[in-house]
Amino acid sequence: MPVLAGKELRIVGFLCNWCSYGGADTAGVGRFTQPTDLRIIRVPCSGRIDPLFIVKALLGGADGVLVSGCHPRDCHYASGNFYARRRLEVLKGMLPILGIEPGRFEYTWVSASEGQRWQHVVTTFTNQIHALGPTPVKDVLGACQGLPSLKGGDRAVA
Amino acid sequence: MQSLEDIKAKIKDALPGLDCVIGWERGWSPLHGTPLFMRSPEDVDRLTWGPFNVGNPATYLTGFKGKKVGVVVKGCDSRSVVQLLQEKLVKREDVVVFGMPCEGVVDLTKVARKVGDIALVNAAVRAGGTLSVTTPEGMVEIPWEEVAADKCLSCQYPNALVSDHFAGEPLPPAMGRDPAAEQLAALEAMAPAELFAHWAKVMERCIRCYACRNACPMCVCRDHCIAQTRDPHWLTQEDSTREKLMFQMIHALHLAGRCTECGECQRSCPVDIPILALRRKLNAVVKDLFDYQAGVDPQAVPPLFTFQVEEAKINERGW
């Protein structure tokens, strides 16, 4: 049985290609210790992220969703993250009415050189999700079709 | 009613220059108003005004793109018109707005709870604070507050916010209670897991008829709605609560900062799913963050169409 069996949750990360993805890479190159719950999806810009991506992930049974983009004013496309900031903030305010704790979704800014900061972000967020525990979504809606059940002992890196 | 005659005269005057004027006429029962598309002076004579003009005629405006049309509006409908103008989905010069002061509309679900089968109703009249409904069993008099649509009890805009022609004396805002806000507060008081289970339970009833979307004046994608496209394939046709809930989130989030709370989505729902609460919450969030209310100022830019480099109320979360 894998060491992590039952200890890992599913976290989806949407990372901007130009900064945070590089930041995560920098953290990896620097061999900083990181929790392994996060699955990264690389996007061209945080402005590319439709808030519905996050809702889809959460309703699909993700225990948490992290969005990370370039610091405001540092966007490769000049203003993508400014729009993203408004959208994501609105989404964060709206999630509670659906019955999803706002803490299951966070957004932040990490630049390509900030490996250390990435380590901090991913560790903090993972701890936060572990404090919240597994999402109630799967218990209520059942496992998402086409995905393996993530209940109990299956919740481990395959 | 004098103001109704006035507005009819104004519509008749304007009609030669317009493709049609959208209003209401009596529907299949005395309780039901139904949309009326006036193209001739005879059509205008069928126009009605009053508590049964429930639907939002602004919904049809974007369907008349490129044509000049008129629309008869209540205060809440006019907010939808304003929002469409703000988003440049309708050109100001292409639409003629006829307004009258609105004293509120009826909520047929509430009437049905009082009198049973509303299909059997053979007369319905509102006089002041009472709605008199006649069924084969006899006449029932119901206090207006008990059958008015929730939004009307605390309506802040009973008169059209934009109008080219206005008939009648403007009314003051209603000062009644706000049942929708009470309902929202009750939902927010629930624990997250319990609340999610609540939504899953009510959404189970959803039949995915998309009436909520079709009745929404702000849902303008119509044939390109992502709920029905296969590319991108956001939703399957699977009859699962997950897909239904996802559709509601698509609808709600596409209305972020745009919803004028006309309540058509919830009203048109054949299985009475209380989906307006999602939009109410979203509007509260937008109001809180950007100090913005949709459909009030034709010159304003909707908050998600723009940004500020330094956001006043967004806390840049430090990690």
Briefly note the structural class of the backbone of chain A.
Answer: alpha/beta
- First CA to last CA of chain A: what distance? 10 Å
Tell me the series of helices and strands of chain A, N- to C-terminal: EHEHEHEHH
Number of strands of chain A: 4
Number of strands of chain B: 8
**Rough outline of chain A:** globular
The total of helices of chain A stands at: 5
Helical amount of chain A: 25-40%
Order of helices and strands of chain B: HEEHEHEHEEEHHEHHHHHH
Which radius of gyration of chain B do the C-alpha atoms yield? 20 Å
Biggest sheet details of chain A: 4 strands, parallel
Query: pLDDT below 50 for ≥5 consecutive residues: which ranges of chain B?
Result: none
Radius of gyration of chain A: 15 Å
Low-confidence stretches of chain A: 148-158
Order of strands, widest sheet of chain A: 2-1-3-4
What is the mean predicted local confidence, pLDDT of chain A?
88
Helix content bin of chain B: 25-40%
Class based on secondary structure composition and strand pairing of chain B: alpha/beta
Span of the ends, CA to CA of chain B = 64 Å
Task: Explain how this protein is built.
The complex is a heterodimer of chains A (158) and B (319). By secondary structure, chain A is an alpha/beta fold. Chain A is built from five helices and four strands, in the order βαβαβαβαα. In chain A, strands 2-1-3-4 form a four-stranded parallel beta sheet, sandwiched between helices. In chain A, strand 3, helix 3 and strand 4 form a beta-alpha-beta unit. The longest helix of chain A has 19 residues, at 80-98. With 319 residues, chain B is of the alpha/beta class. In chain B, 33% of the residues lie in helices and 13% in strands. Chain B contains twelve helices and eight strands. In chain B, the strands form two sheets. In chain B, strands 2-1-3-4-8 form a five-stranded mixed beta sheet. In chain B, strand 5 and strand 6 form a beta hairpin. The longest helix of chain B has 15 residues, at 276-290. Chain B is globular. The mean pLDDT of chain B is 93. Chain A binds chain B through residues 51-52, 55-56, 59-60, 72-73, 79, 82-83, 85-87, 89-91, 93-94, 96-101, 106-109, 117, 120-121, 124, 136-137, 139-141, 144-145, and chain B through 184, 187-188, 190, 192-200, 234, 238, 240-242, 245-246, 249-250, 252-253, 256-257, 277-278, 281-282, 285-286, 288-290, 303-304, 307-309, 311, 314, 316-317, 319.
